[in-house]
Amino acid sequence: MVKRFLSATPRELLSYSGRELLQSIQSSEGRIILVSARVRAANMVDGVANAELAAAFGADLILLDTYDVTAPNIPGWPSKDPAADRPYADVQVPKGAGFTLREIRERIGRPVGVLLGVSDPDHVTELIACYGNIVATPEIAKAAVDAGAHFLSMAGWDAPELYLDAIRGIRAAIGPDPIIEFNRPHGPGLMNYADGSADLMSQEEAMELVRAGADIIGIPAPATFPGWTVEKCAAIAAVVHKADALCSMGVHTSQEGANTQTLEQIALYTKMAGADMHELGDSGYNERNIPPENILAYGVAIRGRRHHYRRMAMSPMR
Q: How confident is the model at residue 160 (pLDDT cuts 50, 70, 90)?
């Protein structure tokens, strides 16, 4: 029997299939937090990986941002081969080279996923140069799932057919069980919304993404993007739920590094809008990890100390 995510132990969560994990999230009534932890950056706290830090402060799921499955690393942990850490000895950042997704999830006791970028062919080289080989191809997606990814979080801002085709191709490659999220958390300067001629995501597009094979549709949380009100977010969430998918809402505009009061307000707006899951991005003082105290404040706001402290305290061995 699948338990709601709030009540499940780390080992129970890691044993769930993709479909079971979706059911577990859905039954938790909008009280689940996904946190992005960047790996193409130094660890925030000495001797601790960013994913490890996020889990310690109450993250339910971890998105390994910029994790290259073809050259895996997780800074903060000693590399499996000590020679891989020597080039970074002068800045005291062990690279953590060689750890698979399955090994990472076992250590931190959380389901993990990877970010995949959807890009047109003319910009793939630029994407890889900036973020590693995280291109949303069937081959990379299959390698990530085989290495232990519970979910794939895809993002893109190109022509709609490009990412619809990418979702279809990846779904065919990985099969029906692993979770696919399509996330457009904000515009990063690529969306022309000032004149009202462009929308970040419409209800119609959300429906198309679900039909293409996405299980979760990710949009900005209310108050994190111009014009994104509770009502607008709720309308998109309603059509996503009608299509039997989940809706995630996130703080990804560096606003995740704001003060805790701001995060608490966004958290309640997001729950009011009908989000199944809350996402917190990787920006605090720079792009690597949200300030951990913001995870704590956000989690207490949406589920209270009882549930949040339990997630923080429960051993990965349980």
A: confident
